[in-house]
Amino acid sequence: MPYTPILATLGYVLSPDRSRVLLVHRNARAHDAHFGKYNGLGGKLEADEDIVSGMRRELREEAGIECGELQLGGLRWSETAVPASNHDPRESVGPGPS
Q1: 11 near 55, Cβ under 8 Å?
Q2: How would you classify the pairing of strands 38-39 and 21-22?
Q3: 22 and 63 in contact (C-beta within 8 Å)?
């Protein structure tokens, strides 16, 4: 089975004094596994988007925010996306099996 990564964004909008953060409350779909929880804003990238364009789109769609400046806080690679039978957790995670 070919490996297909899911690229997504997750962002946190801070107040100017950095004392508050804007979160979404997941309460629209009762069948959502994360129903009732709070999280940052973001979502899956479209096929033609880079990370910055995707984050800006998600901020616009979810909160009506037009963002002029973004700061990258980090990257995350989920090891659950790599088949366990082909992965030694002591090794770095690569692009997956070919």
Answers
A1: yes
A2: unpaired
A3: yes
